Amino acid sequence: MFSKINNVKSSVTKISKYLKLIRKLPYFKALKILLNFPSKVSAIIWNSLSSALNNVAFSEFKQAKALLVIKDCYAVKGKVFKRFHARAKGKNFQISKKTCKIFINLSFKPNL
User: Fold this and answer.
1) What percentage of the chain carries pLDDT values higher than 70?
2) Strands 68-86 and 2-8
3) If DSSP codes are grouped into helix, strand and coil, which group holds residue 89?
4) Alpha helix stretches (DSSP H) within 5-88
5) Which of 19, 39, 75, 103 is deepest in the core (most CB within 10 A)?
């Protein structure tokens, strides 16, 4: 049960702050935490979590959605888009727009 999103238009440090909050938590508790943050990043992570849940829905463990736990989640540096901003006297200033990749892995809580 795995989810991957490429070329998210945000830096790794911004996204990893939110991913640290939901790591090793149950699935539905992580969704409640993400609802409380009114940022673009939390919406992107929400979409990635729902994508991972849809990957679970097609496996043989349909009935055990309450037992899902976020095993690990991390962000990796992606492409850097380069733009140029015109300056005085014919000079240019380079703007780098950073992107990242988000990986979320779900697993089932072991029955104790």
Assistant:
1) 89
2) unpaired
3) helix
4) 12-22, 27-35, 40-57
5) 75
